[in-house]
Amino acid sequence: MRQRNIKNLQERIDANSGCLVRDPKALKGRWREVFGNDRPIYLEIGSGKGKYILARAEERQDINFIACEGQENVGLRILEKIQEAQIPNVRVFMEFIHDISDYFKEDELDGIFLNFSDPWPKERHAKRRLTHRRNLRSFMKVIRPGGSIEFKTDNDRLYEFSLEEIKESGYEILEATKDLHGEVSAIVSKRFPTEYEERFMAQDKNINYVKFREKSLATAGKGRKSMIFARENGRTVPKEDKIFGISNRAKEMAAKVGKDKVINGTIGALVDDSGKLIVLDSVDKVFKSLTPDEYAPYAPIGGIPEFKEAIKKAAFGKYEPKGFTEVCATPGGTGGIRNTVSNYSVPGDRVLVADWFWAPYKTICQEIGREIQTFAFFNEERGFNIDDFKKNVLELLEIQDSLVIIINSPAHNPTGYSLSVTDWRNIKAIFEKTPQDKHVALFCDVAYIDFAGDEEQYRQFLPVLDEMPENVLPIIGYSASKTFTLYGMRCGAMICMAKTPAIAQEFKQVTEFSSRGSWSNCNRSAQTIIAKIFADPELKAKVDSERAEYREMLLRRGRAFEAAAKECGLEMVPFDAGFFASVPMPNPDAVAAELEKEGIFLVPLAKGIRASVASMSEANCKVVPARIKAAMERLAEK
What we know:
alpha/beta, Rossmann fold, Aspartate Aminotransferase, domain 1, Aspartate Aminotransferase, domain 2, 3 domains, 7-stranded mixed sheet, 5-stranded mixed sheet
């Protein structure tokens, strides 16, 4: 399409050039330096005015995107939109790509989007089509093993040609349809129409779509292997766990320069001001009193009966659920998440979580063939964003028959935010208007509930779960690892709040089946400890009293961090209580790396940095915010 000339084009480009890459070929092999992090990178070739790639970038700020548009007068529109919306994870270059290897080295990209490319209808021009096998081979060389290409077009002949080229090239087709918007599917690209696409949709024109990748992850002819014997299976497998990797670097520095010169704000475990792990003394005494008969035998798959009764009391406090409950023991809260996703969704489904989320949610979903979709956690008033939650719930229930939703509250990881009872009632109101033939598993991750504040006050939302409509199954994910400081014993439980005995019995059946197929039985000694605590009122009172003292210590640390941030003008994500506090920023990986140079180790997330107030002294909580602010300012000056 012929584009009109724009007056003062270069001046307008210069005025909006914050995300513009003027010499992209010079950055071959160095694109992650441009973004300042190691997140995945996706390229769109022919971005037009940027509607597609900017929408994807706004939803997935944990991913980097590159928009390539050869026409400057069109590319200007992308620059202006990025400037106006302040989208941090997009870079733009305005050139026509003839040889992609001039711009990217092997394995540098995680995927490529080809949307409504020129069809070059004459047969003699077939080699100019972006989906010609010669071009596809070039594209695949710069995409990491397991990465994919997505192609959309309104041109049916081009689509048939492209499918043939894909098959002849030996690539694996992951998703394909001749009517992207007319068929019910969970294809992600469906939610992000381009400008052209919207025009064709208004004319009832079908949109063709295909997503494909190389069949072999150890790719022949490219001289590289991602794995040796193992297979990626569509996963992105890092060399080490991000959080534990950062923590290990902190420990290494402490060993070299001294503990007093290092602040380790990474791991979600409660430590005292000297850095020693806190274990409740009353719990420790029970542990040391166990006999072999109490810890050595295998526990039943679902947990020993005394533990199952005790853990319900631990999770619900004084509240007695009105429906039917069943318990399945899990290795910490993580096992409950895994079993919920595995049993209450199907492969290919998207699991809904907040855009500030605990990274292993994504790992768990990826491991069993699901994906995550995020909703904006906070609204402009810094409260729970019920509108965006509703939008995503309704959107997913249009294309899925089942939906797993994970809500981590109170004392949310990584922000420390807690939903109010009103928030929960608003969530219930949304479910009351959803189709009753659509099933929702609402996983309530309450890992930090006993360190949030008054234990009964923070359980006031539980009656709302009992009031949920029949098509919603609330599942409580309870982490005894934290409540009873039994971190290494990996003890927890998932508890259903079912409307009927049949649903509760089904829950027991499927979760025990999944447990048997993964970790089999859970730790018996931890279950016995908790059962003994709840069987002895005097002992339980001691445990509660001791925990309350440390909870107050944790709350003081959180308030100290919050006050210090306010004093130095550092913006925080809304915080209430818990193990973590977070600071929003556009370049968290770069800021975290800058802080590591001065001995401060925090966790960079997609949208900011997480600080574990559980693992920092109150004195350090007063210091760290100003150091974060200073690091951000230093990087801004570069």
